[in-house]
Amino acid sequence: MPPIGAKQRAVGLVVEYNPFHNGHLYHLNQAKHETGADIVVAVMSSSFLQRGEPALLSKWARTKMALANGVDLVLELPYAFATQKAELFASGAVAILSEAKVDCLHFGSESGSIKDFHHLLSFMRENREPWDELVKSHMQQGQSYPKACALAFKSLDANTALSLDQPNNILGYHYVKAIADQGSAIVPYTTKRLSADYHDTTLPSSSIASATSIRQSLANEPDGSHLIKHVMPESALQELMTYQTDFNQLHTWELYYPFLQYRVLSSSTSELASIYECEEGLEFRIQETISRSSTFIEWMTAMKTKRYTWTRLQRLSTHLLTNTTKVEMNSLHQSSLPYIRPLGMTEAGQQYLKYLKKHSSVTILSRFAATDHPLAKTELKASRSYIAPLPTSQRMAQIDKDFSTIPIRM
Amino acid sequence: MPPIGAKQRAVGLVVEYNPFHNGHLYHLNQAKHETGADIVVAVMSSSFLQRGEPALLSKWARTKMALANGVDLVLELPYAFATQKAELFASGAVAILSEAKVDCLHFGSESGSIKDFHHLLSFMRENREPWDELVKSHMQQGQSYPKACALAFKSLDANTALSLDQPNNILGYHYVKAIADQGSAIVPYTTKRLSADYHDTTLPSSSIASATSIRQSLANEPDGSHLIKHVMPESALQELMTYQTDFNQLHTWELYYPFLQYRVLSSSTSELASIYECEEGLEFRIQETISRSSTFIEWMTAMKTKRYTWTRLQRLSTHLLTNTTKVEMNSLHQSSLPYIRPLGMTEAGQQYLKYLKKHSSVTILSRFAATDHPLAKTELKASRSYIAPLPTSQRMAQIDKDFSTIPIRM
Predict the structure, then answer these.
(1) Do the chains contact at B262 and A384, CB–CB below 8 Å?
(2) What is d(CA B244, CA A302) in angstroms, rounded to the nearest whole number?
(3) Is residue B150 over pLDDT 90?
(4) Does B262 touch chain A if contact means CB atoms closer than 8 Å?
(5) N-terminal to C-terminal alpha carbon distance within chain A
(6) Which residues are involved in binding ATP (chains A, B) (predicted)?
(7) How many pairs of residues across A and B have Cβ atoms under 8 Å apart?
(8) Taking 60 as the threshold, does the pLDDT of residue B198 lie above it?
(9) Which of A57, A189, A205, B264 matches a 20 to 30 Å C-alpha distance to B298?
């Protein structure tokens, strides 16, 4: 035990836990071991995720999964950062972890070598302008942003060891960059991810599976807990099954489609054009395609072009659903972090939070009722959109949870 | 038979047919008889009604009911006029009937004497200013608009035979006034309504019932066709039952409540304040009360004050659901009628329409695909909001009907 009031060594993780599985557990333990931390602080996406999807389970259920499996303190990654491409996503997460006074940040990557990340950062400090030019030119030729980045690196420096067309390398690079840009004292660590491919859609026989493959199994077979029990900790599986029973379903895009279609068809094109990430006349394409698509996947397929990645379009769908405008989002990104918000904590997390309350420069916020900051307003709007398709009694039980509930203690 | 190309004598009716019943049939026959008309032209509210409710059945189903029971030509009363208090509602209906070249307009009223309406009109020409002052002052004392009107008349002229706190007298007065204001050649007729009370909620044993009591019976007992078969023509009852089977339900406010709640909770207060009829800070009350109300009726009860009639609040709910703004609505009311739109016609109605096509000064519009007038855009938005809560296959079948369907022929 450290002396009372002294700060324990803390490692920060950036997570979605959608849902929590053995790979997450492995990473968590490895992070603690490699950094010598006493405390694990996870900054976790709230209701909607980086790839522009509703989280399968509420942030409260995912917080319980995290606390039952070794995380000491779960902090909310607000909607305004959770639903962004890597750069903004990472800068929000790092800003929160800095305010949470973690000593280090540990992330999984395809590379596994922190030196490669530092090297790339130096390279970019020197070659930013030509690199930007190349990215722009590749995008003008119709490439997606990630692909354009990768091509730009190839043109400028064949010796860059870090491949940026792999999603966790991109995120990792932006964590390291955000730490440097924000002048943070956080020390970054990385190890190679166990799961070979983030995009795996079939379940392996081993105990480590991608979250994508777990979601896919649940989508194909809603009663398929027997299919995934070897890849999830018992407590997390239990939480998942309870949620599915209580709410009658998990949150998938299809559940939201009638609401999204209603929203789009009852909006004018100029209202659609005011939504964040609705660029280049997409509002006309949105309205025309959605009126003839009977499911979300049908709509996305109709919307898809080489110009826009699936993820980009899903993020746009998320902002349409939550009615998040350009003006609103840009003003949130321009203001400094107003608060950090614990969603849950263990006994040890609670002690750590006591220390934070004395030393953090921002508010530690437990309920939205206690603030009227626009960041909280946008979050409340997102969480109320998140519960829109639930049956009445469950919807009503959740509707003011963000507004009035205090963090979970476990 | 009249000579080909000659105009037949036509009587105009202003209707909702929600649903079509024996009282409507009686009125229709009486109108034809009293005016000596060959042709009946009904201008019918589209998807949402004057009291701020979704119509029980689609405009297409209600058009079929009308055509099967003696109406020759059904014209759409657009959303922009159908969901308004008496003055605007009547001015829209009269403008359309004028363009439809009807010779007379026949309406039911509590009074039953057309002389009383003319007398009131003259009285108002002379006393408008003091009357306006009195209405304003009564409203400032917390009276509703209809009540304030009635009180103003009492103060100014105890001899006014026409009681303006009865809904069909108010409508009738505004028909007569609109005819005069618009310099229309239409001759107004009225007879006393058979059904004593517009607001009756229990079914009588006789063959004439109010639409309210029919809707109430259906709400209490969805399979209650045996309860209402003595008060509706066989064909209309059949249409109602078929609709209920095909669409799984009739359209009631409760069906829309999850969508309305979602809309309100994902809007900012300034967005709510931009909605038509959202006045005097109601946006805060709307958002606060809807987050704790699990049904539409619960919400309306929470919203209700002496200041606002139930109908006024229901109309506001309609505009919230359809996302109709003040700017949008006011600009529609300021522009002149761009088209009249037939929803359906009999053989005789078709002949009449041929005459109209030659002599009307506005477009005869059959599909919204053929126009980009804002009036059609608002209508399309309303009809797409109207079908939002239907199950997917029925929703998809209806979604573009307004856009591409031509009028029904029967």
Answers:
(1) yes
(2) 32
(3) no
(4) yes
(5) 19
(6) 14-27, 108, 168, 193
(7) 80
(8) no
(9) A57
Contact B322 A384 (CB under 8 A): no
SS3 B25: helix
| DSSP class per residue in A275-335 | BTT--TTHHHHHHHHHTT-SSHHHHHHHH-BTTB-HHHHHHHHHHHHHT-BHHHHHHHHHS
Query: Taking the model in full, what pTM does it have?
Result: 0.92
* Residues of chain B neighbouring A291 (CB-CB closer than 8 A): 384, 399-400, 403
DSSP string, A309-322: -HHHHHHHHHHHHH
Report, as an integer, the average pLDDT of A282-309.
Answer: 93
* Sign (positive or negative) of CA dihedral A363, A366, A372, A375: positive
**Shortest Cα distance from B308 to chain A (angstroms)?**
26
- Residue among A14, A62, A393, A377 nearest A251 (CA): A62
pLDDT tens column, A167-185: 899 999 999 999 999 999 9
Whether A37 contacts A103, CB under 8 Å: yes
CA distance readout (Å), B159 to A334, B111, B118, B153, B155: 67, 14, 14, 9, 10
Output the six-digit token pair for B78: 């657009």
Tell me B372's DSSP state: -
Start-end of H helices in B48-141: 59-67, 79-82, 86-99, 114-140
Place of tokens 């836990």: A17
Q: Tell me the ipTM for this assembly.
A: 0.91
CA gap B396, B64 in Å, rounded: 21
Query: Please, are residues A40 and A6 in contact by the beta-carbon 8 Å criterion?
Result: no
* CB-CB neighbours of A122 under 10 Å: 10
Task: Give ranges for CATH 3.40.50 in chain B.
Answer: 10-110+190-251+335-409
pLDDT digits (tens, 9 = 90+) for B81-116: 999 999 999 999 999 999 999 999 999 999 999 999
Q: What CATH number is given for A10-110+190-251+335-409 in this structure?
A: 3.40.50
